[in-house]
Amino acid sequence: MSTRVLHMQKVAGISGSEAHLLSLLPRLRERGWDVRLLMLHENEPGAWDFARELTARGVQLDAIPLAADVDPVAFLRLVGYLGRHRPDILHTHLVHADAYGQIAGTLARVPVRMSTKHGFNEFRENRGFALGDRAIASLAHTHIAISRGLAHYLEEVEGFDAGSFEIVHYGIEPDIMTLAKALANGVPIGAMLTREDIASVLVAGTHGSTFGGTPFVTSVALATLTTILDGKLWERASRMGRYLMDGLRAIQAANPTVRVVRGKGLLIGAELSAPVAPVVDACREAGLLVLSAGERVLRLTPPLIVEERDCDRALAIIGTALRPAG
Fold first, then answer.
1. What domains, with CATH codes, occur in the chain?
2. 246 in the Ramachandran plot: left (φ > 0), alpha (ψ -120 to 50) or beta?
3. For a tag site, which of 1, 104, 212, 267 has the least CB within 10 Å?
4. What is the reported pTM?
């Protein structure tokens, strides 16, 4: 009998982590894993879009609705569910799944319980939340963070031990990574990062760059990286990205033209049921520059320093541009 794996997550739509699951879980099943997903939800249209996509790819999915953040009925249903299905491994992702899943998994005596921390969130700086989060985390056998930066952030704001986290960013550890463009905030530069064992075999002539490391461009790159690090702009990107995607999902709830909203940080896409070109044109005429990604995806790539008022103005323009003429 194969190992039974249950992934548990609260879903509102198809964003970065959900898009990853749509790719990962079917591949695990193809390799013989007995894996299914338990979706917590609040009946958002995007949650059911995700459910249909995942089941169409052959992955079993069950769902438990939440009437509120603290829902005793949902919790009792979850305990019963775990008792019936008896997974060998329970993996919880994000706050709701952690809180419900780790407690219920302990009561149901799931043999292996894992928890993944995903984002930089302001609510984590609340002392009460930090105490509760650490208490729930103590029920998990393995803790995962999507980056070392997040692990250190959780140590700083919640009191976790950064060294206790396994680091897995979507299961990908690149051998070589190339950088350009944003590294020097638009000034031409190119760079390559690699592991030491690969770097040790690179000698003069095996690697080159049109825009390499001149004193000028490297000083600009240093200033750019210093600004990002000192201002913790990755946290801002995560926070403002959620703000924009929440606004787009509010538009989606009132406009069926918007099918799916997804994104990671401030790289965001809204998939439409109609051609996107007229929307791009209407936004430009109203003073907002947006992009297309293919024929039906509206792409937003605002700067890392974008403010909420900028997002509000952009959402208002997009909402107007998506309204039917007349």
1. 4-167 (3.40.50.2000), 176-230 (no CATH), 233-321 (3.90.1150.10)
2. alpha
3. 1
4. 0.55
178 DSSP assignment: E
In sign, the C-alpha dihedral spanning 98, 103, 107, 109 is positive
- Structure token digits, residue 293: 């990604």
Q: Which residues pair with 117 in a beta bridge?
A: 145
Alpha helices in 206-300 (DSSP H): 215-230, 233-254, 277-285
For residues 105 and 79, is the Cβ–Cβ distance under 8 A? no
Q: pLDDT tens per residue, the chain (326 residues)?
A: 578 999 999 999 888 788 888 988 998 888 888 999 999 999 999 999 999 999 999 999 999 999 999 999 999 999 999 999 999 999 999 899 999 999 999 999 999 999 998 776 777 878 898 899 999 999 999 888 877 778 878 888 888 887 788 777 555 667 888 888 889 998 999 888 888 888 888 887 777 777 777 899 999 999 999 999 888 888 888 889 889 989 999 999 999 899 888 887 899 999 999 999 999 999 999 999 999 988 889 999 999 999 999 999 999 999 999 987 53
8-state DSSP, 7: E
Written as six digits, the tokens of 244 are 């924009």
Q: Which of 325, 282, 304, 299 is nearest to 229 (CA)?
A: 304
